C-alpha cells in the first residue's frame, strides 16, 4: 500500500513537471501526455527549421569566401608608366613589413624624387607615386624602376 502511494505521488510530481514544461492547462494524465507529445513535435519542427537556416548560412558563407578569394589581388603588382611630369609608379601587394620605407629607399638610391604620392594600407598595401629624376641628365627607365620596386617589396 505504501509503495503504491509513493508511486502515485512520484507520478503526480512527474505529471506536474510535465505540465509546467509544456504549459498544459489539463489535469488529466492522458491530456497532459498528449500535450507533451505535441510540444515535442513542435520542438522537432523548430529544430529542423534552425538546421535549414544554419545550412543556408553556411552556404552563403562559402559563397562569400569564394567571391572574396576571386577578388583578392595578386601577391605583387607593380605598374610603371610615363606621365606628364615624370613617371607614375603604382604598387599593390599584400600588407606587412616596411614596404613603403623600402620603396622610398629604392627611389633615393636611383636618384628619384617623389613629387606626389598616395598610400593606403587598409586591406592591402597600395601606393601611387609620381617620381622624377634629381638631375635632368638621368634618363628614367621604366623597366629598371619596376624591377627595383619589385625587389624592394620582396625584401
TrEMBL record:
Residues 77-154 form the Plant bHLH transcription factor ACT-like domain. It is found in: Nucleus. Keywords: Nucleus. The keyword Amino-acid biosynthesis does not apply. GO terms for molecular function: DNA-binding transcription factor activity; sequence-specific DNA binding. It holds the Pfam family bHLH-TF_ACT-like_plant. Its main location: nucleus. GO terms for cellular component: nucleus. This is Plant bHLH transcription factor ACT-like domain-containing protein. The lineage of its organism: Eukaryota, Viridiplantae, Streptophyta, Embryophyta, Tracheophyta.
Amino acid at each position: 500500500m505504501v509503495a503504491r502511494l509513493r508511486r502515485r505521488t512520484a507520478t503526480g510530481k512527474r505529471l506536474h513537471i510535465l505540465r509546467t514544461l509544456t504549459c498544459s492547462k489539463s489535469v488529466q494524465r492522458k491530456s497532459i501526455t498528449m500535450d507533451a507529445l505535441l510540444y515535442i513535435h513542435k520542438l522537432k519542427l523548430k529544430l529542423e527549421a534552425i538546421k535549414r537556416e544554419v545550412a543556408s548560412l553556411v552556404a552563403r558563407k562559402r559563397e562569400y569566401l569564394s567571391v572574396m578569394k576571386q577578388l583578392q589581388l595578386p601577391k605583387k603588382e607593380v605598374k610603371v608608366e610615363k606621365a606628364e611630369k615624370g613617371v607614375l609608379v603604382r604598387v599593390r601587394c599584400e600588407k606587412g613589413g616596411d614596404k613603403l620605407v623600402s620603396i622610398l629607399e629604392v627611389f633615393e638610391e636611383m636618384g628619384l624624387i617623389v613629387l606626389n604620392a598616395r598610400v593606403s594600407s587598409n586591406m592591402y598595401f597600395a601606393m601611387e607615386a609620381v617620381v622624377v629624376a634629381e638631375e635632368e641628365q638621368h634618363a628614367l627607365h621604366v623597366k629598371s624602376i619596376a624591377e627595383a620596386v619589385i625587389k624592394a617589396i620582396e625584401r
